[in-house]
Amino acid sequence: MIIIGIAGGTGSGKTTVVKEIINSLAQKDVALLPLDSYYKDSSNVPVEERQNINFDHPNAFDWELLSKHVSMLRKGESIEQPIYSYLTCTRQAETIHIEPCEVVVIEGILALSDKKLCKQMDLRIFVDADPDERLIRVIQRDVIERGRTAEAVMERYMKVLKPMHLEFIEPAKRWADLIIPQGGHNKKAIDILKMYIERIIVGK
Prior knowledge:
Blueprint: E1 2-7, H1 14-23, E2 30-34, H2 63-74, E3 79-85, E4 90-98, E5 103-107, H3 115-120, E6 123-127, H4 131-145, H5 150-169, E7 178-180, H6 187-203
Parallel strand pairs: 1-5, 1-6, 2-5, 6-7
Antiparallel strand pairs: 3-4
Helix pairs in contact: 4-5
């Protein structure tokens, strides 16, 4: 089993890189653990206060549960991955059953920000992109997919996304084995990554 962590700022192209990896492998050989699934359950927080949760801060995540699940998969045990609702800021009663497989991908903005989790990874990747390009992608995504105004997105970017990126996400580069510049547009880097993963699988 190879456990891969993929981190990078919002709008950097992480999802594109992950899709390329998953599409290059047989479905039974890869499992995806989105970091977003491991947000802490906030059902104990009053509803009116949940909107103040900073989802870009390391404290928002249940690192202990994620680390436990990674250890279980490594041991050949199946896990029940949480399902998190952004609407209610709570974990759902349902879970996603995941069986151990050849490749486990942990993907999220802060995937390389927990030292214990990093030590469990066999390969650590940081997807990098120009800040202006990331902002443009965030505006396009949030306006089209989440119904926000461009002004609201830019305000959140300046107040939350940018400060959190500089404080927590950008420093995680030091833990990366591989940094992919130009995000999902860097086809050569992605192809090299896919070949590396395939070589490890075949070697086993």
